[in-house]
Amino acid sequence: MAEIVIMDFSGIYKGEQFFEGEKVSWLDVREIPGTNCYCDDEAKTQILEKLEKFSAGGIYFIDSGNYHYMSRIGIERVKEPFRLLVFDNHTDMQLPAFGGLLSCGGWIASAIEEAENLVEVWLAGPDEEAYSQVEEPLKEKVKFFSREMLQGFRNNESYSEKTNNMERNVMDFSFLGEIPTDLPLYVSIDKDVLGTTDASTTWSQGDMTLGEMMAALEFVTRHFKEAGGKILQVDICGECDPDGADNERNDAANRELLKFWKNFFAEQEDRGALL
Fold it and tell me: Read out DSSP for 137-169?
């Protein structure tokens, strides 16, 4: 069974219920200084020490987008070549401003430059203007799908269906079928790619619906299952500010995401046992 790890940086998850009834590991990292938006070397060392008892795989909830750099730390624990799929409203490829500190806004750039096992990044969600500001050398390892491109898929190819009592406006996600399956995939989801109807986050948000997000995940996981590929790990961030907590939408999204990934990893483990 895939591990479900909740990393508590801010206390925000105390106001949510999506994990109730599940076997979860609660990792309290609130006492570690130097973690909000930026992660200094000492904080990173302490976090890695706390993660040692967990496998480099499974489902990780990593708090708000302020801590999205946890994906970079997760990537560091992968010891084989892999690809990275990211859903985010931002590029997270800003060059570091403070002495090379790992940051929530630059973790993908750090991974591209330093993670030897990272072969390629597939990034979906930011707008074209934001991506135009990314340094050209970083783009060499990136397959980019802009918000404008996704909106075009919605306008031209969308239809509506109801699954699990949730209305889903399904985009054409066939581009995700282009991800090669010869290497494992690491998936990172920032809920700020969602519109405000489905999430409340600490950063500016996109306009993807939760139904569209779930359809995208269904497409990519089906693609990997049919090809015999492997998904290593998923992490999920995008909680709101605990001081002005509006958790109902995030709780619902987290519940949907946890159910989806828990079922997927169980099926993946069953397939592996049959090989």
Answer: HHHTTEEEE-HHHHHHHHHHH-EEEEETTEEEE
How many residues can be counted in the chain?
275
Distances from the Cα of 133 to the Cα of 107, 136, 159, 192, 247, angstroms: 16, 9, 33, 19, 32
**How far from 109 is each of 24, 86, 106, 168, CA to CA, in Å?**
31, 13, 5, 33
Task: Return the pLDDT at 162.
Answer: 45
Q: What is the DSSP letter of 239?
A: B
Provide the β-strand partners of residue 120.
83
Which pLDDT tens digit goes with each residue over 123-168?
A: 999 999 999 999 999 999 999 999 999 888 876 644 444 444 444 4
Single out the residue of 40, 32, 85, 98 nearest to residue 63, CA to CA: 32
Question: Do residues 72 and 107 lie in contact, with contact meaning Cβ atoms separated by under 8 Å?
Answer: yes
Q: Name the one residue in this structure whose structure tokens are 């806004």.
A: 105
d(CA 116, CA 144): 21
Q: How far is CA 211 from CA 41, 215, 216, in A?
A: 38, 6, 9
The C-alpha R_g of the chain, in whole angstroms, comes to 17
Helix, strand, coil percentages, rounded to 5, for the chain: 40, 20, 40
In the chain, DSSP finds a helix count (H) and a strand count (E) of 8, 12
Element (H, E) at 5: strand 4-8
Residue whose pair of structure tokens reads 């089906």 in the numeric block: 222
- The backbone torsions φ and ψ at residue 54, rounded to the nearest 5 degrees and listed phi first, read -110, 150
Nearest to 90 by CA among 62, 63, 123: 123
- Joined together, the tokens standing for residue 229 give 């590929």
| Structural domains of the chain ordered from first start | 4-274 (3.40.800.10)
